[in-house]
Amino acid sequence: MIGQVEVYELPKSQISPISQTMAKREIKHPDKQKSTGAYSAAVEVDGWVYVSGQGPVDPKTAQPVRGSIEEETLYTLNQIKKILEAAGCTLNDVVKSTVHLEDIDDFDRYNAVYKEFFKDVAVLPARTTVQSVLWNSIKVEIDVVARKSLRDQTAGSAP
């Protein structure tokens, strides 16, 4: 059958409970006024929150915020924190972060800011840090994955 597709719909009894609950919810940056691309700031699925790569970019103008690696890292982490809060998460909920540095030689300076930012977190997130070519010569880009607590997942659901 070239050019034809047969569609078969499974009876609800054969659909796993997991796939029935995997609705996606977009999380928006609370301060974002200008688009910086075709992506969501974050997406929540079943209590998991996936924050897209964030950099030192002003959410009102979509322009880079220039500074030292320390300044750009702190600015970026604060933007991530705002998105996490919009999703109902805290820094304690972050389980994984991926960090892209424009220059890996900045690692120690970036790491000092990162460590200070997460100082009150009981269990630090797993982390990968790599050197990458970044948009518009920004020095850092960070994405995170967070897991909402079961209490937070059910707090907003209807009975």
What does it look like?
This protein has 159 residues and is α+β, with helices and mostly antiparallel strands. It has a single domain, classed as RutC-like (60s Ribosomal Protein L30, Chain: A, 2-Layer Sandwich), CATH 3.30.1330.40. It is built from four helices and six strands; from the N terminus they run αβββαβαββα. The protein has a six-stranded mixed beta sheet with strand order 1-2-3-6-4-5, covered by helices on one side. The longest helix is centred in the middle third of the chain and has 18 residues.
Taken in chain order, the helices and strands follow as HEEEHEHEEH
Supply the CATH class: Alpha Beta
Rg, nearest Å: 19 Å
CATH superfamily, by name, is RutC-like
What is the percent of helical residues?
10-25%
Number of strands: 6
Largest sheet: 6 strands, mixed
- From the spread of the alpha carbons, the general shape counts as globular
Structural class: alpha+beta
The multimeric state of the shown protein is single chain
At CATH level 2, the architecture is 2-Layer Sandwich
Strand line-up across the major sheet:
1-2-3-6-4-5
| Terminal-residue CA separation | 46 Å
Mean pLDDT: 88
Beta-strand percentage range = 15-25%
| CATH fold title | 60s Ribosomal Protein L30, Chain: A
